Amino acid sequence: MLESTSTFGTVLVNSFSFAYILLIFIGPLVLGFLCFESFSIYKRNKFLHEKQSDAKLLELRLPQDMLKSPLAMELFLASIYQTSGETTWIDTLIRGKTRPVFSLEICSFEGEVKFFIWTWEFWRPVVVSHLYAQFPEIEITEVDDYSAHVEFDPNKNQIFATEYQLNKPHFYPIKTYVDFGLDKDPKEEFKVDPMVSFIEYISHIGKGEQIWFQFVLRSHKGTRGDPNNFRGTDDWSGAAKAEIKKLKSQDVQAAGEIKISGASLSRGEKDVIDAIERNISKLAFDCVIRAVYVAEKDKFRPINIVGLIGVFRQYNTPHLNNLGVVGSHITAFDYPWQDFRDYRVNGRKRHLLHSYNSRNAFHVPNRGHYFAINTEGLATLYHFPGQVAKTSSLNRIDAKKAEPPANLPI
Questions:
Q1: Least CB-packed of 275, 321, 388, 408 within 10 Å?
Q2: pLDDT tens for residues 182-201?
Q3: Residues 95 and 157 occupy one common structural domain
Q4: Domain identity same for 140 and 177
Q5: How far apart are CA 176 and CA 317, in angstroms?
Q6: Is residue 329 part of a domain?
Q7: Do 14 and 121 fall into the same domain?
């Protein structure tokens, strides 16, 4: 018994000695890594704060006869695909620089619908010039940030906020304007624009209510941090090619000594492969979609929560992809014991409101649930509707502008 105790003590002492020696060598490395990581986060947040402090919010007023298809918006989005700012590891890790961030926004203020674009001051001339290039008749005005004047106070107002996600891997596309036939520029009376139902919904709110949507963007660079894995990466094109290979390998037929991959795939399976290949053939952005519904306490209507949850349903395709809310980024819980006295839900409301206001979506502490989406899908979710959107609440220019004739007598 004594010998067994002595052996155990020796093993214990040796284990502690080994752990101590290991700590001497590993401890400084771990501590150094943590310090460097903290330094990088500090520099990045400082850089973002400087960019956000002089950022501009541009209101876009549409003409009465907007006739361009979403393709024009897709071309504009391709023009703001910018990868500068992260050229070297020194820029990224030491100086804290990031790729430029843009935010496309659609808001309803007591039923009046407006379009906005938020941009860093440095990129403002690029945004304005490319907007006018595609939409020469719109009116662009710099305005105050509407979200900066709203604070959450449970005694005065109520807030519902959420973020959205793709429920399948992001290389599976949603239903786009091409699928709706809008790429063919049909006559206004034959257009089926999915934006119309979206605008009609947010325009039917009353006094004391506001609904905001933002699409926060940065260029997708092949690999990115995975929102579900802090240190992980996710290559959307590489993952898509692997998925296509997997789909084709599920059906391999032998023709003599030659194996033919995907020889008897169904029409639906071939359509899925074609859709994925087409999706990754275009430029892509990392995107966070946020929505906020804020209303005076006595005018808050829970039915609008239902509308926000299903607002993107028209873009869903069962065999491809669909948009839904993020369970961990929504101001609601399923069961009462998950949140005592609304402490957690009120914390989420403040956090998501601050995230919306800062337009920070890709870095802590306001990192959102982001995914890759190409310019076609993004132009489907955010474009200027034509005359098919008849709602009077859509903020349009009263009259078409025109240059005076050259031969006008003086």
A1: 408
A2: 888 766 666 788 888 899 89
A3: yes
A4: yes
A5: 10
A6: yes
A7: no
User: Which tokens go with 93?
Assistant: 């890790």
Question: Is residue 85 left, alpha or beta, with left meaning phi > 0 and alpha meaning psi from -120 to 50?
Answer: left
Q: In terms of domains, do 175 and 86 share one?
A: yes
pLDDT digits (tens, 9 = 90+) for 289-318: 999 999 998 999 999 999 999 899 999 988
Q: Are residues 217 and 117 in the same domain?
A: yes
Is 261 part of any domain? no
State how far the Cα of 332 lies from the Cα of 312, in Å rounded to an integer.
Answer: 19
Spatial CB neighbours of 268, under 8 Å, sequence gap ≥ 6 = 319
SS3 206: coil
- Cα-trace Rg, the chain: 26
Contact 308, 234 (CB under 8 A): no
In total, how many domains does the chain have?
Answer: 2
Report the C-alpha gap between 303 and 254 in whole angstroms. 57
On whether both 31 and 122 belong to a single domain, the answer is: no
Contact 60, 117 (CB under 8 A): yes
Residue 11, domain extent: 1-53
User: What number of residues does the chain have?
Assistant: 410
Q: How far is CA 238 from CA 71, 140, 174, 226, 301, in A?
A: 26, 39, 19, 14, 44
Phi, psi for 117 (deg, rounded to 5):
-135, 130
Q: Is residue 343 part of a domain?
A: yes
